Amino acid sequence: MPLIMMTGYPSSGKSTRALELKRLFEAKLSEPEHQHRRLTVQIIDDAYLGVTHDAYAKPSAEKIARGALLSAVERLVSRETIVIADTPNYIKGLRYQLYCVSREVSTTQCVVHCAISVDAARRINQARADGYSDSLFEELVMRYEEPNPAAKWDSPLFTVIQHDPADQLPFDAIWDALVEQRAPPPNFATAMKPVSETNYLFELDKMTLDIINALLESQKSGVPMSEVVVPGTKDKVRMPGRNLTLSELRRYRMQFTKLNRQVPLKIDKISSLFVNYLNINL
Fold first, then answer.
1. How far apart are alpha carbons 179 and 108 in whole angstroms?
2. 3-state DSSP call for residue 79?
3. In the chain, where does DSSP find H-type helix?
């Protein structure tokens, strides 16, 4: 059934809210009028995935952690299971990938943003025995990309002020958005005419190919670069500290285009989203 993505700064209380959501869903589902739904609730967190805080300090280890999360969500999300992804989810590109997974199985999804000031999160993190190191905490805060309700992968968005007893989870609104609403089919985005669809696929192929070619061309100078400017977007591709091979880039391009052929994006967003996809996976 639904996919819930928790997001927020480190030590913002995401796990506390995830457990609260699980209890609320289970209580609601135990009511006589909802027992026919036969839904279960599953939390996927770093402990479930076997991921430690150190994984977020190294790009290679973090890439493995993201892959483990995506695999777990793909395996568990269904029309019979409410999946709560209680992992950092601090990069918009990762939230987009999770959104695509939910769309592939025609289920609903939402984002729960645990809002907190950096200073308050820092104090809580430092007081925790299992908190992030100070340096890693600051790095994760710097990398954090707040959810944008105007982006379809961040919508519907529910924001709750953390560690404020007076600010309750909007559970009724979350229930309505995820359980009562009918999930859109995978190709719901537009009832596109054949000509428009053909143009979209052409642009999808062309714009992703232009980015691949720009990355390969940038490597010909032999000068290592941490970031590469590519056509079609102001976003830059973060290089992994090594040369990228043509076969590797083709594989990522094929994965991205496969995800987005049946769920059309806005054409002016293709390049930016592909760059985000690369930055997550490289």
1. 8
2. coil
3. 14-29, 46-49, 59-76, 92-104, 118-127, 134-143, 171-175, 194-218, 246-260, 270-281
Query: Mean pLDDT across the stretch 91-99?
Result: 89
With a CB cutoff of 8 Å and minimum separation 6, the contacts of 136 are: 53, 56, 57
Q: Are 248 and 206 a contacting pair, CB within 8 Å?
A: no
Burial class (CB in 10 A: 0-12, 13-18, 19+), 141: middle
- Kindly tell me the burial class for residue 137, based on how many C-beta atoms sit within 10 Å of its own C-beta (0-12, 13-18, 19 or more): buried
Closest CA to 237 of 205, 282, 267, 207: 282
Sheet with 40-45, side-by-side order of all strands = 40-45, 81-86, 3-8, 109-115, 157-161
Round to whole Å and give the CA distance between 255 and 32. 43
Determine what percent of the chain is predicted with pLDDT higher than 70. 91
Strand partners, 4: 84, 110
Using the Cα atoms of residue 122, residue 123, residue 124 and residue 130 in order, give the sign of their dihedral: positive
pLDDT tens digit sequence for 117-151: 999 999 999 999 999 999 999 999 999 999 999 88
Contact indicator for 264, 200 with CB cutoff of 8 Å = yes
- Whole-angstrom distance, CA of residue 181 vs CA of residue 177: 5
pTM: 0.69
Rounded to whole angstroms, how far apart are CA atoms 268 and 207? 10
Length of the chain: 282
Q: What separation in angstroms does the CA of 113 have from each of 35, 133, 262?
A: 29, 23, 28
